[in-house]
């Protein structure tokens, strides 16, 4: 898959659905106690690592960034879609959101104490994931926590219609947790825990890692 093509398609797709997507997910975390617990643990890990800035990479409309902020974490969001960033800034004024790509993460080395990437790697092709995780390793301070959330499976689908019935063109990759964990280890992270969600029609997992 051409890198420029899938990045451009992903950006355009989420620009198109940004407002509708925000409406769908705005209160979703309230119904996800296990994910709230995962975020609470992440916040504890950041504090134990000395505090400091935390990057929410692929932040979408900013609900998770705002939740982390409510837990006392200095979180900021990065998203590929300018439309998503605009919605995030509208819905969460006073928090920092910026446009950026995880494939070319424009952050200084060792800037952040922790990094969260929830259901954003799912659009990255397999052959691009190691480079993305290398960026994550570069920007996280030694000993800092990293948390990845993703769909579990072993296939990819092309999604052509999304939130609000708007047209999209994005590939959604479902991967075995063991494969994602292996990529994370190869990038220089220790795997400390895995949370499996489901089983249901959309099984998912959260990996808890730490930068070595």
Q: Which helices and strands occur, and which strands form pairs?
A:
Blueprint: H1 3-25, H2 33-48, E1 53-57, H3 63-70, E2 74-79, H4 82-91, E3 97-99, E4 114-118, H5 129-139, E5 145-151, E6 155-161, E7 167-174, H6 177-186, E8 189-197, E9 204-211
Parallel strand pairs: 1-2, 1-4, 2-3, 4-5
Antiparallel strand pairs: 5-9, 6-7, 8-9
Helix pairs in contact: 1-4
Helix content: 25-40%
Low-pLDDT parts are none
Q: What's the shape?
A: globular
CATH superfamily: Vaccinia Virus protein VP39
The CATH architecture is 3-Layer(aba) Sandwich
The CATH topology label is Rossmann fold
Strand numbers in spatial order across the main sheet? 3-2-1-4-5-9-8
Q: Count up the helices.
A: 6
Which radius of gyration do the C-alpha atoms yield? 16 Å
Mean pLDDT: 95
Strand content: 25-35%
Task: Kindly describe this structure.
By secondary structure, the protein is α/β, with parallel strands linked by helices. It has one domain (3-211): Rossmann fold, CATH 3.40.50.150. It has helices at residues 3-25, 33-48, 63-70, 82-91, 129-139, 177-186, and strands at 53-57, 74-79, 97-99, 114-118, 145-151, 155-161, 167-174, 189-197, 204-211. Strands 3-2-1-4-5-9-8 form a 7-stranded mixed beta sheet, with helices on both faces. Strands 6-7 form a two-stranded antiparallel sheet. The longest helix is centred in the first third of the chain and has 23 residues, at 3-25. The two termini are 32 Å apart. The model has no long low-confidence stretch (mean pLDDT 95).
